[in-house]
From TrEMBL:
Keywords: Membrane, Transmembrane, Transmembrane helix
Protein name: DUF4283 domain-containing protein
Pfam families: DUF4283
Membrane-traversing stretches: 65-85
Keyword Transmembrane helix listed: yes
Domain of life: Eukaryota
Species this protein is from: Liquidambar formosana (Formosan gum)
Residue span, DUF4283 domain: 38-119
Length: 176
């Protein structure tokens, strides 16, 4: 067996006494910079049982979202990406225009709070539009749409303009 080099021996001696019980460091937050950065970004997780490449996500997002050169995508974990925008309005448009699908997978988009690490972001909830077909005219009410939507989760918005228009629509929409 060979002897460790002098550099390795020095490294071993420097780290031998370290433990998790040592004093913690007093780290300072740069909240202003972090807020500015997170205001221009979204974290997205693809709900799919296989890994999707950065190139695939980049190609689909650039085409679907129409950002020629104005979108930076950084992989964070398997099927989890940071989408960086140049303008707050672009970020807002993409976030509010969902839900999004890529390569047959649901893309859950979340704002990244500056005080959270990636593992603390909750990807278990995602708003989506629900279309309700086949209700007879006398059952096309906001209350009934809310009841149906509530079966799946929290209803955020019921989309219709007036009772008269509601009677002639082919379907009703509820976002939850």
């Amino acid at each position: 067996m060979t002897q460790p080099s002098e550099e390795v021996s020095l490294l071993i001696s420097k780290t031998a006494g370290l433990s998790c019980d040592d004093e913690s460091l007093d780290l300072e937050a740069d909240t202003e910079n972090a807020v500015n950065a997170t205001n221009l970004s979204l974290v997205g997780k693809l709900i799919i049982d296989r890994a999707v490449s950065l190139n695939t996500v980049r190609a689909v997002a650039s085409k679907a979202w129409n950002f020629p050169g104005g979108l930076v995508i950084t992989p964070l974990a398997i099927n989890t990406f940071l989408f960086g925008f140049n303008k707050v309005n672009d970020r807002r448009r993409i976030f509010n225009s969902g839900p999004w699908s890529m390569v047959g997978a649901h893309l859950v988009l979340k704002a990244w709070s500056p005080s959270l690490v990636l593992e603390e972001i909750d990807f278990t909830y995602s708003p989506f539009w629900l279309q309700i077909h086949g209700l007879p005219p006398d059952h096309k009410t906001v209350r009934n749409v809310e009841k149906i939507g509530a079966v799946l989760g929290k209803v955020i918005l019921v989309d219709f303009t007036s009772k008269e228009v509601l009677l002639w629509q082919n379907f009703l929409k509820s976002q939850g």
